[in-house]
Design a protein that fits this description.
This protein is of the alpha+beta class and 233 residues long. The chain has 4 helices and 8 strands, in the order H-E-E-E-H-H-E-E-E-E-E-H. An 8-stranded antiparallel β-barrel has the order 1-2-3-4-5-6-7-8.
């Protein structure tokens, strides 16, 4: 009788071990390969407010002339996402490559000069600013630098040497890095389209600038970030 009990207990123990082993392995594999569903979103360190920027730009216009921009822009933000470039004013210095003179010397007439593209002397635009991306960057594996990526679009007017004042439109992207609570460095790429009397003329400008923000840009304790609000909906 005792031998029969031992056999029954041995069979039960073996069955229990074999039936639970696959479940344990499956659970272990699930824990290894499962993707965590939790996420973390860090609030902005700085808010966006009224800003004044001074910048220098390079305009690779064409084979005849290159340009250098000097300008200033005043921007105000309605939220962490949207803002308005109230005025973006640029003065342009042209750098003649000498090709125009060579063509005139060869052709000996004004007809050739009429085919050479016109050049802007100054520009003033107003633009909408959309800032969907906020960044946290590690420079040289030791310095954390906050920043953002903005997109701009709008229009204005430009004064040309031969065609007087003409309407223009522009779009662009701005990559900004915060140096402190109130200052930042920016790199900008902007594409312009000028509506001249003899057609449409596109041109590009590559700019670097230094921005000063009026008032405190530091996020107050307890303030809800617009990005945080999006994730808590």
């Amino acid at each position: 009788m005792n031998g029969l009990k031992k056999v029954i207990l041995l069979v039960f123990f073996s069955w229990s071990t074999l039936s639970l082993a696959p479940q344990a392995v499956a659970q272990e594999n699930k824990d290894i390969y499962s993707v965590p569903k939790a996420y973390a979103v860090q609030n902005r360190k700085y808010t966006l407010g009224s800003q004044l920027t001074g910048y220098f730009g390079y305009m690779p216009m064409d084979s005849f002339t290159k340009g250098y921009q000097f300008g200033a822009v005043f921007t105000t933000y309605f939220s962490d996402f949207s803002g308005w470039e109230v005025v973006n004013a640029n003065y342009v210095l042209d750098d003649d490559t000498g090709l125009k003179g060579d063509i005139l010397d060869i052709s000996g007439g004004q007809a050739a000069a009429d085919k050479i593209p016109d050049f802007p002397e100054w520009m003033v635009t107003t633009n909408f600013v959309y800032t969907p991306i906020y960044t946290k960057n590690l420079f040289f594996n030791k310095n954390i630098v906050w920043g953002d990526l903005s997109f701009v679009s709008g229009g204005g007017v430009a004064s040309y040497k031969e065609d007087d004042i003409r309407p223009i439109a522009n779009v662009g992207a701005i990559l900004k890095f915060f140096l402190s609570e109130q200052t930042s460095f920016r790199v900008e790429l902007r594409e312009y389209v000028a509506f001249l009397s003899d057609g449409v003329e596109p041109f590009m400008a590559i700019k670097v600038g230094y921005t000063y923000q009026f008032g405190s840009a530091k996020k107050k304790q307890g303030d809800q970030d617009d990005i945080e609000a999006e994730f808590t909906k």
